[in-house]
Write a structure and sequence with these properties.
Layout: E1 9-15, H1 22-41, E2 48-52, H2 57-69, E3 74-78, H3 82-99, E4 103-109, H4 110-123, E5 131-137, E6 154-160, E7 167-171, E8 183-189, E9 193-194, H5 203-206, E10 213-218, E11 227-231, E12 235-240, H6 242-254, E13 256-261, H7 281-286, E14 292-298, H8 301-306, E15 308-309, E16 314-323, H9 340-360, H10 366-377, H11 389-419, H12 430-438, E17 443-447, H13 451-458, H14 461-471, E18 477-478, H15 481-490, E19 494-499, H16 500-510, E20 515-517, E21 522-530, H17 537-549, H18 552-563, H19 569-587, H20 594-653
Parallel strand pairs: 1-4, 1-5, 2-3, 2-4, 5-6, 10-13, 17-18, 17-19
Antiparallel strand pairs: 6-7, 7-8, 8-9, 11-12, 14-21, 15-21, 16-19, 16-20, 16-21
Helix pairs in contact: 1-2, 3-4, 9-10, 12-14, 13-14, 15-16
Length: about 650
């Protein structure tokens, strides 16, 4: 069970059975009630929850009445067994979630308190906002040893002593180096009140100086956040990185030391959010095996259920990279200057203007008008279609439009396309990526158990659609962003989804000309991951906000980007040389090659082939018409001969 809130206190009053007269016992209970009331008045709380068992009903009743007289909102609950304790833990968690500030007083026996502490450990009822305060007589004694289970549980003892009106307050989280040990922090008596105000030492003040305490910090090789050098399975050395410099700055200000740990699984991991630790480095935080983690840890809803996150160290966007778009084929260079809509308008103009000219000029044929229109649009010389003023006016307007608008624009666009060949349309949005996956033009990759994978699973409809497509692939998970970028460079048809800042850094290392970076898909914030209920949470936040406002965080990031990975210095220099050569080649004037003019030759070939085909058809039709004409002439000659012979015979007979 996880608790969130601003300030909450749980007070547990534990009484030993002692033999006193009823009047003396009444005086003791009255004094304890008064002392507790003074303690509550010095702490800020919206509501007080009094919990008791069957052995302390009268004291709980008196305390409830006393709080009502002071106009303090209070409730009373009774717990007797483990089942009621479990329900009470759920109630406390719900009140903290709704109110964020709850004071809880337990008026119970020693055995009930012991059982309750076991239930607290079992249900993981702990946090920065939870304090357990016990009231005991003559503390400490051998039978009343009390120790904090973790740093997330704050324990205090409010002790009174025989023949004395002094109450002493002992508490954990009062010494930065050993926060789980108990130290006296205050005292109270009826005449002078508390010796120190505020009653409890603020944790922000306690952990401002951690007295050289050692913190356990897992580390992953993830440039530019961490540059890790590892020899074999033993030696681990961090040679640089933005988060390495940030950790050094925080450690110097809070006076603690740290030790880097090499985790077994080299990934951040994603906690389940259901109280069960997941896998990866963040699961070690969930199990409280390490103290904090830096290294581009993205804040997500599931992670916040199991961990605490500091003020953000960077605002990053989820994006994806593909291989740089390939140059378009030069075969269609003559067609690309105009969109298909323009070509459609041009051909419709040719088809409609020809008949229009035929209607205006009555002395010409339709074929001559269509041919004249085509010649004018193609900027070719042609003879005059007609002699009327209407025909000449239409011809002049058509010539001006074709020459100075359509023709010049076409030539200008064609020249620019030949000078700088076009490239394929890149993928920039989730819709583009989903469409490419659906058409099986690309395969999508993502780092295992990363924020990018979580974005796809829990993101928008398009993101979830991409995630389902990825599940059908043979391989979709890569061990690191670095290896994923190397795969995208080496092979066409791959897409890698990760943080935009990390992708930009890796692109600089491998050569930016090989990649295309998409538009930002969503904004995500990275922060320092801490154990839930971390007591020095406010101290780290204060330092981070100061570094952010002073611009030091941005300076650290810019410095690491400028380095471009000191471990690959030679490779970086070679990459810069290649980039410069590539840039010079892009602006260098080149002679026209067959590859650039292949479209013109293809048009010439198909035009010649079409012309030969039309000529063959015309010759065939002409020969066929000739044969038909000869047959008609032969039949006509035979018919004339027959008619002549018939006439001659008829005359002879007469």
């Amino acid at each position: 069970m996880n608790l969130k809130g601003t300030v909450s206190f749980v007070l547990i009053l534990l009484f030993k059975n002692y033999n006193v007269q009823s009047e003396s016992k009444f005086e003791h209970e009255k004094r304890i009630t008064f002392a507790l009331r003074e303690l509550l008045l010095k702490t800020t709380s919206d509501e007080v929850l009094i919990t008791f068992d069957t052995t302390n009903v009268r004291l709980a009743t008196n305390l409830l009445k006393d709080l009502e007289k002071q106009y303090i909102l209070s409730q009373a609950h009774q717990i007797n067994d483990l089942k009621n304790m479990e329900k009470h833990c759920n109630l406390t968690s719900e009140m903290l979630r709704k109110r964020g500030d709850v004071t809880e007083i337990f008026v119970v026996s020693h055995q009930t308190a012991k059982n309750y502490m076991e239930q607290v450990k079992k249900s993981e009822l702990g946090g920065r906002n939870l304090r357990l305060i016990f009231i005991w007589q003559n503390w400490p004694s051998g039978s009343q040893n009390l120790a904090a289970q973790t740093e997330a549980v704050r324990i205090a003892v409010y002790s009174w002593y025989s023949n004395s009106n002094i109450f002493k307050l002992f508490s954990t989280h009062s010494y930065g180096k050993k926060p789980t040990k108990m130290y006296q922090i205050n005292a109270w008596n009826n005449k002078e009140g508390f010796t120190h105000i505020p009653v409890f030492v603020p944790m922000k003040e306690v952990f401002s100086n951690m007295k050289g305490r050692f913190l356990r910090v897992p580390v992953l090789h993830k440039p530019p956040w961490y540059f890790v050098k590892k020899e074999g399975n033993v030696s681990l050395e961090v040679v640089g990185g933005r988060d390495h410099q940030l950790l050094k700055e925080i450690a110097s200000r809070m006076n603690f030391k740290y030790k880097y740990l090499d985790p077994t699984e080299k990934s951040q991991g994603i906690p389940t959010g259901s109280g069960k630790a997941g896998r990866g480095v963040l699961s070690l935080l969930r199990k409280r095996q390490v103290d904090l983690f830096l290294g581009d840890a993205t804040i997500t809803y599931e992670r916040t259920l199991d961990l605490d996150f500091s003020f953000f160290t960077m605002a990053d966007n989820v994006a994806f990279i593909t291989h740089s778009p390939q140059p378009l084929s030069e075969a269609w260079a003559l067609v690309r200057p105009f969109h298909w809509e323009v070509w459609l308008a041009v051909w419709l103009s040719i088809a409609l203007i020809g008949p229009a000219l035929r209607l205006i000029s009555k002395n010409t044929t339709l074929g001559d008008c269509v041919w004249a229109t085509t010649s004018i649009i193609l900027k070719q010389s042609t003879r005059e279609v007609g002699t009327s003023n209407k025909t000449r006016l239409v011809t002049i307007m058509l010539s001006i439009t074709a020459t100075y608008v359509i023709g010049d624009l076409y030539c200008a666009n064609l020249t620019s396309l030949l000078a700088k060949p076009g490239r394929e349309s890149p993928l920039n949005t989730l819709n583009d990526l989903a469409k490419a996956l659906y058409e099986k033009r690309v395969d999508c990759l993502v780092e295992g158990r990363s924020s990018g994978a979580e974005f796809l699973k829990n993101g928008t409809r398009e993101a979830q659609k991409i995630w389902r497509f990825m599940q059908r692939q043979r391989t979709w998970m890569v061990p690191s962003v670095e290896k994923g970028v190397a795969l995208v460079r080496a092979k066409q048809g791959l897409v890698l989804i990760a943080g935009r800042e990390t992708l930009q850094f890796e692109m600089q290392r491998f050569g930016q000309r090989f990649f295309h970076l998409s538009d930002p898909l969503s904004t995500q914030y990275s922060a320092i991951a801490l154990q839930q209920g971390c007591p020095y949470f406010e101290n780290i936040n204060e330092i981070l906000m100061w570094l952010f406002e002073a611009g030091i965080l941005d300076k650290m990031t810019a410095t690491e980007y400028a380095r471009l990975g000191s471990q690959r210095k030679n490779e970086r220099k070679m990459g810069e040389i290649l980039e410069n050569v590539y840039d010079l080649e892009a602006f260098k004037t080149k002679p026209l090659s067959m590859q650039m003019l292949q479209g013109a030759f293809i048009v010439l070939f198909f035009g010649s082939f079409l012309g030969v085909g039309v000529l063959a058809i015309e010759v065939t039709i002409y020969k066929k018409c000739k044969r038909i004409e000869k047959r008609k002439q032969l039949k006509r000659g035979i018919r004339i001969s027959v008619n002549f012979l018939t006439f001659v015979v008829s005359k002879i007979v007469e």
